[in-house]
Fold this sequence. Notes:
The complex is a heterodimer of chains A (680) and B (427).
Chain A: H1 33-39, H2 43-72, H3 82-116, H4 125-154, H5 161-164, H6 203-231, H7 244-276, H8 289-323, H9 330-343, H10 359-387, H11 396-419, H12 421-427, H13 431-461, E1 463-464, H14 467-493, H15 510-540, E2 542-543, E3 571-572, H16 578-584, E4 590-591, E5 600-602, H17 608-627, H18 633-653, E6 659-661
Antiparallel strand pairs in A: 1-2, 3-4, 5-6
Helix pairs in contact in A: 2-3, 2-4, 2-15, 3-4, 3-6, 3-8, 3-13, 4-6, 4-17, 6-7, 6-17, 7-8, 7-9, 8-10, 8-11, 8-13, 9-10, 10-11, 11-13, 11-14, 13-14, 13-15, 14-15, 17-18
Chain B: H1 2-13, H2 16-24, H3 41-74, H4 94-123, H5 127-133, H6 135-138, E1 159-166, E2 169-173, E3 187-188, E4 190-194, E5 199-205, E6 210-214, E7 218-223, E8 229-233, E9 239-244, E10 257-263, H7 265-275, H8 287-297, E11 327-328, E12 333-334, H9 338-348, H10 359-371, H11 413-424
Parallel strand pairs in B: 1-5, 4-10
Antiparallel strand pairs in B: 1-2, 2-3, 5-8, 6-7, 9-10, 11-12
Amino acid sequence: MSHDTHHAPVASKLDLAPERSDLGLLRPDRSTGLMDWLTTVDHKKIGILYGAFAMFFFLLGGVEALAIRTQLARPDNDFVTARMYNQLFTMHGTTMIFLGVMPLSAAFFNFLVPLQIGARDVAFPRLNAFSLWTFVAGSFVLNASWLFEFGHLAGWFKDFAWYKSLVYTDFAPANGWFSYAPLSGTFGQADAALHAPRFTGVGTDFWIIGIQILGVASLAASFNFICTIVNMRAKGMTMMRLPVFTWMTLVTSFLIILAFPAITVALIQLMFDRQFGANFFNPSAGGQPILWQHLFWIFGHPEVYILVLPAMGIVSEILPTFSGKSLFGYPIIVFSGAVIGFLGFAVWSHHMFTTGLGAVPTAAFALLTMAIAVPTGVKIFNWLGTIWGGRIRFTPPMVLALGFIWMFMCGGFSGVMHSSAPADSQQQDSYFVIAHFHYVLLGGVLLGLMAGLYFWFPKIFGRMPKASVAYVASGMVILGFNLAFGPMHYLGLAGMPRRTHTYHAGNGWETWNFVATIGAFILGIGVFLAFANLVWTAFKGEKCASDPWDGRTLEWSLPSPVPEYNFARSPIISARDAYIEHKHGGHKIGYENDGGEAGVHMPSQSWMPMLASFGFLIIGMGMPMMAMSVPHAGWMVIAGVGILFTGIWLWALEGPGGYMLKTPTGSASPSPVSATTSTH
Amino acid sequence: MFSRFFHRVGILVLPFLGLLMTACSRADLEVRQSTLDPKGPVAQVQYDVFMDTVYLVIVLFVLVGGLLVYAVARFRSRPGEVVKPKLEEGHGNPLVEIGLITASIGALVFIAIPTLSAIWYTDDVPQEAVATSKLSAWYPRVDASGKENYAKEVADQVLEIDVIGKQWWFRFEYPQLGLTSDAKRTVPNEIYIPRGKAVRINLRSEDVIHSFWIPKIAGKVDLIPGRKNYMWIQGDEVGHYYGQCAEFCGDSHAYMLFRCEVVEPEVFAQWVKAQKTDAVPVVAGSKAEKGKALFAAKTCAMCHNISGHFGAGNFGPDLTHIASRKSLAGAWLDNRDPKAQLALELKEKNTEASMPVDSAQLKANLIKWIGSSGVAHGADGKPTADVKPGNRMHYYKMFNVVGLRESHQKFTDEELDALAEYLLTLK
Lengths: 680, 427
């Protein structure tokens, strides 16, 4: 591998000479503006992009949710058709989970993990860019189904032969986010062209390939973070000195690499059922629909912890900071996180209590589900222990973090109720379940992630979001949320099943559905306000100091915004909560003698990860179009595979590249202590 | 200003709303599909376990929530106070941690024991119930006319009902009593069970996954194609109960409802007998006779069985006794007088009281249902005006059978009226 491409150290990448990769193509190292963002391999920029996409999809999923709530506000309402309603709730769930919460967590992983462990980037920067753009490709494929649906409703396709031949014309997925076979699959016998009759249209094909692509993105990112956390910690940053957020990233990443293979296999089987006449889940050909449920939930339940553990990590960083105390029971919080991850694989069948498992498996999964409440409870106790005896400073992130504990606790309580299988047989698939998982995933995870956004935003952009707007937004979110989902406990117990697009008057569900709709709109406005505040702050907000909260972990020792090489000199750690110790205690952060005039080695930017991801986009658009029998769509898929492999091949051949960036010699030691004690 | 309000009041008090709502809507708990108003042993056991979890959760809520509120209020920093962080590493207090973990496990054992006992109780008909519920204990094997009601071999079994789910309606069969598809005697959408007798339900599906749920009688169990699920139920109070499919099953999932009629065992026996009678001949020269001709001409008889009149169909619901049923179209349309029904429920203070079928309402429903027009979601992409979008009667393309839409069958008002008049004679 040639190193002749390295440059002499420069002060800024704009000073670099134009440089060709091993392939003879110009490296986009010197690009600025849009080109810079598209080719970046900087974990911070990738994190910001993840965050921006995630917030966009959060709002999109929110709009879908509001359409759902509008439809349910009155009995016998016809705001949307049954078909449209089914598409809305399917895309709402899928969007929120795969395009909202997961990428927002990934945004935090990307931005924070290298900073918290004292590294200069992730282990594989180009793979990181590949994860990002593959996620974007997957999200585009999923939502392209809406474009087709709107085209269908507007009548754009009506002159096409392929359109006229369609049996089912649902273009957006309408199976629910867990797409139970055989509704999502096939029935009867396949014809000569290997097409078996199906219950749903190509929306399901968009869903299958979209989730599959998103899975690739998640897997690539997870391997990257595991390698980063295991290998790239600064000197002295032992595993038991890792910030809890980084620990939870590690656990989450392991969950992803262990859980996603199950859904990958299941999706391939379902795709083969639908497109090539396989019979994995086709009951009339001896397939087993129940197999889908097992495969889905052995992914789906760990997925819940994939969503919630990062938020728990965030809260575990925020509470000590604003309580002026170290985390109570750090080893136990870390250990319980790992236990939750482990037990998360042993409780999947509690989603299937009503499928006739039999008494013994039902009992086993009920007991295991109760068992998982113990490590979860332990976390709540330790958070309580953290604020106990502290001095709580109320700031927007702290208020949101306390809100997280409260909502998550409520969600946990209804979770304990579900663990009792006989009680669950009344609650399963009713609005009680909707209430439960929204308390966990919205009241819990969203508040946790919002807390994280408000906590680290000053670090990311060097600007402080307006606290007054943040409080109003948080208040609206918490009020609206409880107004929307509190009554759903009652609705579920009153027998209202989920996923029904309407209901008759006279069932006693009218009042609280109406209240829930009002709550949902308050919640929606609150979330929009909270996000708008952040976006405004990113561009126009008031500049702030690099350590506005008296932070505890390494990232606060860096200037804001963080320079592209992160640490001008690599830190040497001698305590947990290294930076607070450095500021107030006896354990100072040491620095290695690197950087400076000799420079820091920076990875080269590259188009290749994006090119490879673009291949996924073409595959993802081609597969459903093939299912629609659009002419030549099969060639499109083959072209997509070609682009994907070309991208990876060129990526492998372009050589590592890289250049040396000088760092200011004086900037190694963190900002002085005096600025960091704060008053309320 | 905002900060003070929200951190002191907002964040801690608002979440109580959820609990308050449940508490103050006690009057609403006896709604038609309430899970909190059990009327049979299975629902009762499930309710009891649920209440155990509620008690536990209330205790935990008060303890943990109370501590959280106390900690937030007690340990808040005062305005102007300079906060000096404490630096000792937080290993936690081993005694506290172990104590809390032990207490958590203890709390879970409190619900684990009733949970386990309820799992086995609800799994299959308990032995003690078999003795009083077996057919020979309550259902005469030979009736007054000397005819066998059921075979000798099943005399020691409890009543078994096959529930077959389809998009989007339920078919009920009573194999021991001769109400089966083979005999062309099936009951769509209204299941009858004898009061106080345990009944075993066999759950089958012919297309996608559905779920059988009568909240006041028993929690749900899924109908999964290719799988033989079962459950047992028992209704202890005579009345009209409301059930619904609880697993998402496609376009018209929301319209897949059914009814359960709990009747005295003697009434049940009469009902079975009535189900076995054929439809009476139509009066010559009447409107109904025209309707009967239309029923054949418009190919209705291809899918619908009317014993005594037509015998070809078994794909759609059996219509032999359609005029005696209180609901239509997967129980989405109610054949009772809505005002009188509401008044009755208020007067009796329960939702199980039921008015008889109102023939004017039934006729209006029939016309609405058969005459609903506009292509549901065919290739022309028009929005639906259907009573049940995607239903097979109008839209059949999926099974490569021609439905009303594909065959361009339209009904004039007169034809609809005649058809409805005919169906009204099928008591």
